[in-house]
Every structure is written in C-alpha cells, then in structure tokens.
Amino acid sequence: MKKLVNYFKETYDELINKVSWPTWSELQSSAVVVSIASLIIALVVYLMDVTFSSVLKQFYTLFL
Structurally, how many domains does the chain consist of? Predict the structure, then answer.
C-alpha cells in the first residue's frame, strides 16, 4: 500500500513541477496546425481513392 501512495505522490509531483505545459496560445496554434494537416491528408486520401476507383473502372471495362 505504501508503494501505491508513493507512486501517486511522485506522479503528482512530476505533473505539477516537471512537465512543461503549453500556454493557451501555443495550444491553439498547435490545434490549428493539426486541423489543417488532417484536412490536407484527408483530401489526399480522397483524391487517391477517386483516382484508383476511376482507374479500376476503366481497367474492368476494357478487360471484362
């Protein structure tokens, strides 16, 4: 039981004194960057899906 209490004390100490938390403005700018990157990646995946679908439709109409 003593080890568990010590674990939680050390965890609390580390979260309060050793972790460098971002400021609100840093958090907002990081969120914007992640959102834009996610949208770009989603767009690229969508375009790849549409392209491969079109290529496969053409392939199947030619050979089947």
Answer: 1
